[in-house]
Amino acid sequence: MLIGLDARVLETGHRFRGIGFYALNLIKAIIKFDKKNSYLFLTQSEQNDIQKLLTNNDRTECFVVRKAKNPEQYNWFLDQYFLPKAIKYAKIDIVHFLEQLSCPLIKTTKELVTIHDLVQFDNRDYVNWKIKIKFLGIKHADKIIAISHSTKNEIIEKLKIPEEKISVIYNGYNDKVFNNKELIQAKEITRKLTNGRENFLFYLGTYTEYEPRKNIDFLIRVFAQYLKKYNSDIYLVLGGKTGQESERIKTLAKKLGVEDKLIFTGFISEREVSAFYKTAQLFLFPSLHEGFGLPPLEAMASGCPVISSNKSSLPEVVGEGGILLEPDDQFLWVKEIGQILSNKNYSRKLIDKGLKQAKKFSWEKCAKETINIYQEIYDTKN
């Protein structure tokens, strides 16, 4: 069976976000665990990161759909011509679109699409005719992978796709990086990035544009309220790429009198993110809408206690491994932060539960379940 994987997402800015992490880690795991099928990775440039993964593997190959002048961006309209043509020319049995909006309107073989979330539909002003057209390609897919049951329910409700076409396959995490080992080295890393500060709470995101669903204003208000109530000498580290949104956050923090207690790290590597999880007193994640929620999972796997929103997919990921709270109840968040930071036994129990919960997820499991879907689609075809 020849399977095409649309790897173009790894050539765009998405490679630094959740969708990119999914694509890269799934591809790595599939190459490692599938010794039967052959794979063709669809790209839009000859020089790409996928090439590095294919060394000494005669069942994998890259195929340039079209040589894009700027591989960092899709040209959706050009893809309507080039992508179906390339898939047909390569005689691919099944093509798997790893990014939900890359599925073309013209179908030339069996298709599988992974849908990560439908956050576009949270804002009615954003759901214009272009978005609606792009989602039309999903309608004719043979199967759909949803990365959580929450996302599956959204697909049924918002896209009107039959439940029997949708399979839930959870993401994994990089257990070689996100674990509770090498604490001394982790402390050295975070000291450098925080100017020697060791007592901090941690949040991971991006601050280039305003995203209401991330609920960052609520987080800053909770932190300010906690400092006021407990008069604590603790910082809030905001990890991730900064931009226009970080300036707005600083303005809010200044208004609340906590500007000096915020630390923006800027872009940090996977290893540095892991170091913050391992050394933080607590990881906070008040998001209103996630397709999956990788940061809380990585935090639990790293031995960091977690307080998370109880919305969308987060109860599925966090389970009993962390504290789930309403993302608009400042009083409860402040109370829970205080309880965890003041009670080491309580914090330790939460860490142990988090480590146990994290073991339920892996890229090996994700890859093997995905390969089973390929076989299911292929058997239906022949």
Q: Specify the CATH homologous superfamily of the largest domain.
A: Glycogen Phosphorylase B
Say what oligomer this is.
single chain
Protein structure class: alpha/beta
Compute the average pLDDT: 90
The spatial strand order of the largest sheet comes to 3-2-1-4-5-6-7
Beta strands, count: 13
User: What's the order of the H and E elements?
Assistant: EHEHEHEEHEHEHEHEHEHEHEHEHHH
Number of helices: 14
Helix content: 40-55%
**Shape category:** globular
Query: What is the CATH class of the largest domain?
Result: Alpha Beta
CATH topology of the largest domain: Rossmann fold
Number of domains: 2
DSSP strand content? 15-25%
Major beta-sheet overview: 7 strands, parallel
The second-level CATH architecture of the largest domain is: 3-Layer(aba) Sandwich
Description:
Helix 8 (about 245-255) links the parallel strand 9 (about 235-240) and strand 10. Helices cover about 45% and strands about 15% of the residues. The strands form 2 sheets. It has a 7-stranded parallel sheet. A 6-stranded parallel sheet has the order 10-9-8-11-12-13, sandwiched between helices. The chain is an alpha/beta fold. It is globular, with a radius of gyration of 22 Å. The chain has 2 domains: about 1-170 and about 365-380, Glycogen Phosphorylase B (Rossmann fold, 3-Layer(aba) Sandwich); about 185-360, Glycogen Phosphorylase B (Rossmann fold). Helix 1 crosses helix 14 (about 365-380) and helix 7 packs across helix 12.
